[in-house]
Every structure is written in structure tokens, then in C-alpha cells.
Here is the input.
Amino acid sequence: MQHNEPTADKLLAICYALRGLAAMQADLAQPWAQQMIEWLLACQNDEGGWGEQTRAQNDDGCAAISDASLSANVLLMLLDVWGADHPAVVKGMAWLLEKQRDDGSWRQAAQPPQSLSLETHGTILQLLARYQALLA
Here is the structure.
């Protein structure tokens, strides 16, 4: 798999496919699965989240703005594959918790920022519950 520009559709499609395969107890150590996982890891921004572009697509050389929704979906998949102790999971969870607003919600990375949907907040809360359970 080439390191193509990560769009929300590509990131989510790979996450959903890998989560489904993990639920079916497929062997994610196979090279084809490892390629997808490595691509997702390569898309992680330095601060820990995931956005829709890599540095190569941005004129200013900066990483894409990380998005709470995309990041939560990638992190759910990584929890299925590696659990809570993997460095990418730890870094992503720290970013997500840092971005939580005072009222307990998260905002979308879109410009101008918008509040996330109830469905997306539900995904993030599911992630937080699973992460906490794995740490216990």
C-alpha cells in the first residue's frame, strides 16, 4: 500500500475493515494487514492525533489539523490490535484528552470548528471506556 493522502474516507474504511477482522479473530499479523496498520501509524500527526492530510500535501510543511472523530476511530482499531500500551495509542489518547473542552465535548477540526455530532461523541466515549477498562 502506498502512503497516499489520508482522507477521512480512507482512514475510516481501513479502521472499520481492521476492526471487523479483529472481531472475527483474523490473523492481523499477515503482511496485508500489517501494511494497513503501518499506513495508519504513518498518518499519525506528531502531537498524537490523525487528520486528513500528510505533511507532503500541506504548503506550510505542517501536519494536517488532527480531528477528534478520525482520531477516535483509529484509536479504537489500535486498541483492538495492540491494546492500551502501544506508544501510538498512548500518544493519541493523550492528544484526545487534551483537546476535550471544559464542557466535556470535542470540536471538529473543520474550519470554522463545529461541535461534533452525538454519534461522534458516543464513539469517543466508547473509546474512553474501552481504554480505561484495558488499563484496569
Remarks:
- The CA atoms of residues 17 and 77 lie 9 Å apart.
- The mean pLDDT is 83.
- The two ends are 36 Å apart (CA to CA).
